[in-house]
Structure formats: C-alpha cells, structure tokens
Amino acid sequence: MSGGVMRQPDGLGSTLFRLLVILALAVFILLPLAQTIMLSFISTIPRHDIVKGSFSLINYENIFSTPALTASIVNSGLYVLMNVSLTLVVALPGAYALSRYRFVGDRHVLFLLLAFRITPPVVLSLPVFILFAKFNLVNSPVGIALVHCLFNIPIAVWILESFISAVPREFDETAFLDGYNLPRFFVTKLVPIIAPGIGVAAFFCFVFSWVEVVFARILTVTGGKPITMAINALFGFRTDIGLVMAMTVFSLIPGVAMIYFVRNHLAKGFVIRT
C-alpha cells in the first residue's frame, strides 16, 4: 500500500492462475477417464483372431455375448427404477407432513432420519440379510431396491421438506378454497412446483443405488447381481482389463444420461436449497 491507496491484484495474473487451477483439475479428473475409455477399445489378452494390444470392439461385444454381464445391467436398471420410484412415493408425503404439520417431536423425527442415513451400511448388513432371507428377498431385485430405500428415504425427505417449506402455505390454502382436495392438489399443483427438488432427490437416490456394493454383495449370493458386482467378478487370476474397462465405461453411461436429463432441475434445485 502506498499513499493510502491499496494496490489491486494483477488481473491477468489472477486469470492465468485460475485457468491453471481449472486445467490441473480437469487433467486430474479426465485423465483416468480417458485412459479407461482407451483401454476399453484395446484387446488386452491374447486371442486367436485378434492381436494383443490392437484396437478392437471385442470387449463391448463380449459384454452382450456374456449372459451374466447383460443380466447385471438389467438388474441394476431394475434396482434403480424401483428404488427411485418407491423412495419418491414414500418421501413426498412424508416431506409434506413434516413441512406443513406441527406435532410433538417433528424436528426430532427429521433428525433421527438423517442420523439413520449416516449409519454405515455394513452395520446393518447382518440383520438385513437375516430379515430378507426369511421373506425370500435374497437374490431378488426387489430386496436390493427395498434395502436401498432405507438409506435413500431419509435424504429424500430432508431434501424435499426444504423445497416444500419454500412454498408459501397460502398456495395450499388457495388451492383448497378452489375446491382441490389434498391428493389432487398434491399431484397437480405441488409436484410441478417442487420438480427441481424431486430432480435433486432422484439424482441422489440414483447415485446411491447405482454404485452401492455392500448390500449388493450380501443380498445377491447366487443371482440378481448388479453391474458393480459383475465388474468385481471379472477380476481373477487372468483378468481381462479391456473387458473390465468396457464394463466400467458402460456403467458410466446411465449416470451421464441422468445428469444430462435432470441438469436443469439440479441447477435450480441446488440454488433453491441454498
């Protein structure tokens, strides 16, 4: 500082610094992804008709020619679809009740839900397995979807409750004065308004269900294995790295598609949530 005037930071220097930081972060994130994609198109084990190390689509062909791998993709899709649907069906009314009605211990209920959400899944693995085995839900997509709901419903309720609370109560009262009953108001009026929040909740449910491995390993002993367990099963004494990378790339596609389709809701949702 000279003569009581503070020197402004160099605009060009700060811009270059920010660009370097962004470039370094991009390289850190994208380099492993680029290597994964490249390896997925390379034959990494000797084959009688393909030279090892050559460019080929054999890894992706093997995915669709291997029943266990194709079944795992279908299973994961079923897990996610059922999990997200069940979670939203349960969380939406629960979030509305916590937002609009007051009762003794209402805030404590929300706190307990969040506390349950941060419980390590491995702690509940044994009791969940015993309970689901009694109801014949082991090796079943329904079993995985239900156990995932146990962890997704608390976070979905917490997210949706804040979005519903941001809607003035007068909005509900006006709709009721216009002749709407609660179910009709909920479906036709409230749900469209909180669509960004539903998008955020669905995104988090999707991410947890798609990549979860603890319950997937425990509850899929002989069948119904998701894509995460199918990738894990590919590792052995003679691992086909190219096939592993192809399955990894294939597992990323639904997540990228999910982000693309709900990107506007995610952006609005995080702005409203903050």
Please write out the topology:
Layout: H1 11-40, H2 58-65, H3 67-100, H4 106-117, H5 121-134, H6 141-165, H7 169-177, H8 182-193, H9 195-211, H10 214-219, H11 227-233, H12 241-261, H13 263-273
Helix pairs in contact: 1-12, 2-12, 3-6, 3-9, 3-11, 4-6, 6-9, 9-13
Describe what you observe in this structure:
The two termini are 37 Å apart. This protein has a single domain (65-273), classed as MetI-like fold. Helix 1 crosses helix 12 (241-261), helix 3 (67-100) runs antiparallel to helix 9 and helix 9 packs across helix 13 (263-273). The longest helix has 34 residues, at 67-100. The chain has helices at residues 11-40, 58-65, 67-100, 106-117, 121-134, 141-165, 169-177, 182-193, 195-211, 214-219, 227-233, 241-261, 263-273. Helix content is 75%, strand content 0%. With 274 residues, it is mostly helical. The mean pLDDT is 84. It is built from 13 helices and no strands.
**Uncertain regions spanning at least 5 consecutive residues:** none
- Please identify, by name, the CATH architecture: Orthogonal Bundle
Q: What is the distance, rounded to the nearest whole angstrom, between the alpha carbons of the first and last residues?
A: 37 Å
How many helices does DSSP assign?
13
Order of helices and strands: HHHHHHHHHHHHH
Which structural class matches the secondary elements?
Answer: mainly alpha
